[in-house]
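Reopening this one. Same input as before:
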Amino acid sequence: MTVRAKKHLGQHFLKDEQIAQDIANSLTETGYNNVLEIGPGMGVLTKYLLKKKFTTHVVEIDTESIEYLKAHFLNLSDRIISKDFLKMDLAEIFGKNQVAIIGNFPYNISTQIVFKTLENKHQIPEFSGMFQKEVAKRIAEKEGSKAYGILSVLTQAFYHVEYLFTVPPTVFNPPPKVESGVIRLIRKENYTLPVDEKLFKKVVKTAFNQRRKTLRNSLKSLNLSDNLREDVIFAKRPEQLSVQEFINLTSKIENDVV
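Same output, byte for byte:
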């Protein structure tokens, strides 16, 4: 029995054992006893995770894959979660326990998986997975680059991001049209911001929504005082600001008196 890759689920099954092993080994295994694999498919990565000390759980939406996993991984059967990760409540499964996330992520929802992780950062100390290379690079990118944007800043505010390696299309069935990239996120020791998190997100998103403009123009909708808008930082464009500078900018906006 094999599982057909379904286009609408963005499935590309990894068939290279060494790469599967490398992804499994990318987890540091510190600070958690549970790991959740998203979209295990036929379990090429799962089997390497099951050899580790931590407890592996998998979340899968494809019924055909679930049947395959239940038939081939008997010791996993009670930890196969038949849900959509994006709609899943981690606390329901793991209580208050920390859980690392891993997977060969479906490209069509990969950025949403990152945003869901950021929402649950208090419970996710580590995250390792495969994305379309362009998306992986974007998450890991530093300021000063065209690829640096909302995803880069919001992820790097809470996690240390490392681009690990590139994966060619030939190791998948069916092969995607693009290269893939594996990245690892390790949560910062102090991952609470010294500013209001909602405002921070709003500032970052508003700035990058008009990324070619200077902050003086792109942040007009925030009704800032003339005095604050004279600050030298407002002459910059968003891609020129580091994550720390975005935090500093949010702090200035918080304390602004109109």
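So the earlier flakiness isn't reproducible anymore. For the record, The chain is about 35% helix and 20% strand.
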